[in-house]
């Protein structure tokens, strides 16, 4: 997949993932794009794992099912980022 397709998939998946996930995540367009690209890798790898039973680093493609998988991966990435950056309320 070429660079422009990665940017489009990243912006689209990251924006939809941030809109679906509850709470305020912050970050600008670059953060949203990076989140979407990471989500594409997470979603594509999980989809490959469930289809083949082997864990491989793959990314979703710029298609309707690929965007759906990338959005699911972006939601997982938002959740994991929230776990890593959570501050205790003590």
Q: Globular, elongated, flat, extended or rod-shaped: what is the shape?
A: globular
Helix-and-strand structural type:
mainly alpha
Number of helices: 3
Tell me the helix content. Answer: over 70%
Please indicate the count of domains.
1
Instruction: Supply Rg.
Output: 13 Å
Average pLDDT number: 78
Describe the protein in words.
- With 90 residues, the chain is mainly alpha-helical.
- The protein has one domain.
- The chain is built from 3 helices and no strands.
- The chain has helices at 3-20, 29-52, 64-85.
- α1 crosses α3 and α2 (29-52) packs across α3 (64-85).
- The radius of gyration is 13 Å and the shape is globular.
- The model has no long low-confidence stretch (mean pLDDT 78).
Structural features:
90 residues; mainly alpha; 0% strand; 3 helices
List the helices and strands and how they pair.
Layout (H helix, E strand, L loop, with lengths): L2 H18 L8 H24 L11 H22 L5
Helix pairs in contact: 1-2, 1-3, 2-3
Short description:
It is built from three helices and no strands. By secondary structure, it is an all-alpha fold. It has one domain.
